[in-house]
Amino acid sequence: MMLNLLQNLHQKTYRLETIFKEQRNPAYSITKSYARQIEVYYYGKVKDEYQFQILVVDFDFSDDDETMGKLIKKISYLFDELECKVDAEGNITAVDNLLFLRMRWLKIQTELAKTHKGEAVDNYFSRVSSLLEDETKLIDFLGGYNMFGLLFNGLLQSFETKRKRESSEGFTEIMTPVKVGDKMILKISAQNLEQTEVDDFRGVFVCKGDQYEEGYIEIKKQNSHLKHSLLWIG
Questions:
Q1: Please, which domain of life does this record's source organism belong to (predicted)?
Q2: Chosen CATH of 2-232 out of 2.70.98, 2.30.230, 3.40.50, 2.60.40
Q3: In b/e form, how buried is each residue of 193-227, taking b as 16+ CB within 10 angstroms?
Q4: Structure pTM?
């Protein structure tokens, strides 16, 4: 099943969305959403790894009329074309067009620097540059739930057996597969949250046959609620 799930991502279109809600004070809260429509192409197997191309064909950011929102959206275009290798469990193992991304960032940064100034902007630029200089850090970033971690999440083995893994936030993620009719549902829960700032962590991934259909991850903290979701749309 695991290998078929990867291969069946070919020529599929998904909608990825992150919704962030924060209660700034008892009378004021904010909600922001960041959505992308992506196309996935599978180009075959090289040794024990699988080659993919991911194209982001549409962006929809709720705050792109604000200065910082516009900046983040423009920087997001840096990652609208990704070529990568993935292992059998669905972990990104290499970024094949890393040189292209570095050269593209130099061009984007030069253009943005003409109209965006200040310490906050400089720090943001520095973080992106540092990320692109370290492929291991870049892979961790791209595998985050807010990037492509709902698609390539290292959880394919979990559709066949219950597993645990350590989260970067210090708690333990528990993956429990449950078969419901012709669908396999992977339920995500957490242990040891009391040792972290996270109040609640949960998620669900759904496969029908060898087709990955949808999934989400929710993270709740004291004053914030973050939800990452993925939906197969074509």
A1: Bacteria
A2: 2.30.230
A3: beeeebeebebebbbeeeebebbbbbbbeeebbbb
A4: 0.91
